[in-house]
Predict the structure.
Amino acid sequence: VQLQASGGGLVQAGGSLRLSCAASGSIGIINAMRWYRQAPGKQRELVAAIASGGSTNYADSVKGRFTISRDNAKNTMYLQMNSLKPEDTAVYYCNADVILRTVVAGKSRYDYWGQGTQVTVSS
């Protein structure tokens, strides 16, 4: 299974970006999907999460500005980021809890990460 993140870029403060994370491979079911971010010199932090049924939760720092969504038919997750601030600058990673179609190394449930996409917000 591979997760491909895209949509990052350079934007001015107050602007918007939309990140996408597409999962591909021998996917049976995708449970929770999440966006994390890591700024230089800081620990990776959870930004937003969405369950398979659509329930969501957000970090306090992005509530009201970011919206997480998913298209289960396309195995794709999105993060709409509005009113961006310089402190949102980070590499954004997607993460998914996946149940495979087959058993691999004795189990069928794995946690996968995308490669990261850079978001830079200028002041």
About this structure: The mean pLDDT is 96. Residues 23 and 97 are 11 Å apart (CA to CA). The chain has no helices and eleven strands.
